[in-house]
Amino acid sequence: MRHRQRPTSIDETRVGLSFIEVLFALVVARALDPLADFSKIPGVGLSHLAVAFVLTVTSWIGYHNSWNRPRYFIRFANLPLWQFVIDVLLVVTYWFTAVSAEGTGTGLGRHVSARPETLCVAIAFVLYCFWDEVGYAIRRSDLYEKSPPSRDVPRRRYVTRLCAVIAVMFAVTVWAWDPRSSTTIIVVDCMLIALILAFRFTKEIRFVTPDNAYTTERRTTPDEDLAESARHLIQLLETRAAPDDSGRHTLP
């Protein structure tokens, strides 16, 4: 199918990115909204909401810091489209993490259990792996010249895969165990938060992400390029119009 695709340029309107940002904002609002009456929320519900909040906010920060975030025009069906679909699925996962909290008035949060949040976190990490693979495919493709292979940081993908394995194994364990004690569920939620934070911090250590991974070359805007060309043209005209030793102008 590769020969049917066209080279894709940078989407300066940031349509896909703006849409995802709106979804992120909705999820954060949904996670914080129940706190308006937090006295009615049990401890397991608060720890569950904390998992949803940390998962969403750290993902939003990682999303904006990533060189693999969607920057190209979305077409049917190019690689940026699949990356956009994964982004939407991730935000939907964050949404379910928030609405399944105990004591928040939703059907998903009716039963006290650690299963929903552990399952959502595991799904999120699996989607991170797919997201990384699509971003890597974009780098390897000659259709996306603004995402060169030199920007690839393989160790970041390795960290994602390792944490995904841990998250899936943890979800399987919790699903089979299904703890009902409030204290145990809060401990499980704290372990999920620790895993999420460890994932984000580990990706930023120098051994994984070198200092030069985020360096950028300054690129001029179209207006700056036009102004520079105009200045060069004026200088050229002034030089051509300057009189020579005989007092004559050199312009034809």
Number of helices: 7
Rg on CA atoms, Å: 26 Å
The major pleated sheet works out as:
none
Q: List the domain count as a whole number.
A: 2
What is the average per-residue confidence, as pLDDT, rounded to a whole number?
A: 82
- The span between the termini is 56 Å
Q: What fraction of residues sit in β-strands?
A: under 5%
Tally the beta strands.
0
Q: Indicate the low-confidence ranges by residue numbers.
A: 217-222
> What oligomeric arrangement do these chains adopt?
single chain
The H-and-E topology, N to C, reads as: HHHHHHH
Helical content class: 55-70%
Q: What structural category do the secondary elements indicate?
A: mainly alpha
Outline:
elongated
How would you portray this structure in words?
The protein is mostly helical. It folds into two domains: 2-219, no CATH class; 220-252. 62% of the residues lie in helices and 0% in strands. The protein has seven helices and no strands. The chain has helices at 15-32, 43-65, 79-99, 115-140, 154-177, 182-204, 222-241. The radius of gyration is 26 Å and the shape is elongated.
Structure described in brief:
The chain has helices at 15-32, 43-65, 79-99, 115-140, 154-177, 182-204, 222-241.
